[in-house]
């Protein structure tokens, strides 16, 4: 009998050891889910379901609970449970929760280049931590671990039953918004416009949609309400997509209900950091407008994001979309923590009603290229803006006295003559902005250069009543690269940079102990030279011709204790009196003139256009020119090098040298 009992015990032990843990046991084993387990055990319905029913659990980590700022009543756990066991593969676009009214949990599959992510509402699923098993009653259960606590739409106060509806849709939420726990926000003004314009059906629509609802504070001034019509209401709804902020890629565009034959409005999200705080904006872009609806972007803070409703998700926003009713200066000062609040602070450091402030206020048709908040944090920028005279120049470099939406800049760039790019005069005399369009697939990125600094437009086309604002990622006119780094990065100067690799010519241009003035032929200048002198151009790139290439480049560089702007050179060397500058090669004898707002330098009897003057760098200045400083003797030498190989050429040149010396004696 004894051996039989022992055998039975051993068999039972083997079965237990081989049995897969239940979800309940998995929760107890994982210390990172202890707060969720405690919440679950306090709720009788959830705890009973865990032991007796089929279910899916979405379990936030302990860190997620520490970040959670919402109410934590015992029923919160029911919003994290569904009564069907659903694996990640089988998750549809929505799954019903066990909270009263069975409000849906919205599922998003975000496809990125390297991997796919899955979100439930705004919470990301840790795919590798999903687990499935059966409980003691042989009911299948699935556990998904998520990085945020799911926050349902709840009425005021714990345990309140004053809400007239469970699981409201977007219109029911809007109609009864005072009942729900949405903080201090009030939605009466927008609700009044929706009812007045009989647009309730838009928010009542079944399916899955995204709704943007402006709060009452966004209806100041009072006249703003008069600008909201049926089309503007439609511009606050994205049909057939449920877009939670973390689950939606930045800058991805979605058509709104206001995307028709005449007016076309798209909406996208953008996220930025203000210190350690993450701020999410929604922007409407009216790409085609009419007399009532201006083209351009309207940017609005999301003041309360990701409110789940029966037919999608609602985001409360700081102001209405599509409505263009503020000047540029009012946009800058609209919010203390707005996307350009640092720009406004810097502007006001010049004193109230300074000249630049006045122009932004009174001008009718302007475009402001405004550096982002992060751009002003650069140390080099902080050092230079303490000089108010320099700051005035820098600010004027960011202002163009005409309306320049992005599509106009692209159009102007496309219509330039070969070898030229579009440039726009700034409010700083004789200073221009130069534009370049980078195209990757369907995406176009606009870059702008001013004062030697190349910046990317990170938010174009913010519309104002008196023009446009483009947010850029750097402060123009405050150099941050050496001459070498600028030469290497500028797509217009590739050929000169590659020639400078010969004999390590470029390396000196990183030196911070000297100041360089470099007349750099742009690529178009070299290509014109190639057409006229193909053999000489080809020889410049030959390894055995590196010494001669270096000599030619040395003629373009002045190394001294200071760098020279074109204005400096014009004072020293006017049209009648040339000025001699020392270079590493030959003395550079120049004259400078200005004609039709363009500069020209005269070298070797020939006037050469300065295509981009005064490209400032940390250790000097680059002047981009339209023709290289190449002598006829250089061309003859390079042509000869094509016909004679170097081993043969050196003895010939040496013999010629000694014979000359012999006859001199």
Properties at a glance:
single chain, 665 residues, alpha+beta, FAS1 domain, 4 domains, 7-stranded mixed sheet, 23 helices, 29 strands, elongated, disordered C terminus, FAS1_dom_sf
Task: Describe the structure in your own words.
The protein is of the alpha+beta class. It folds into four domains: 2-146, FAS1 domain, CATH 2.30.180.10; 170-325, FAS1 domain, CATH 2.30.180; 341-472, FAS1 domain, CATH 2.30.180; 483-643, Roll (FAS1 domain). The chain is 29% helix and 28% strand. The strands form five sheets. A seven-stranded mixed β-sheet has the order 10-9-15-14-13-12-11. The protein has a seven-stranded mixed β-sheet with strand order 17-16-22-21-20-19-18. Strands 24-23-29-28-27-26-25 form a seven-stranded mixed β-sheet. Strand 5 and strand 6 (123-124) form a beta hairpin. The model is unreliable at 6-17 and 642-665 (pLDDT under 50).
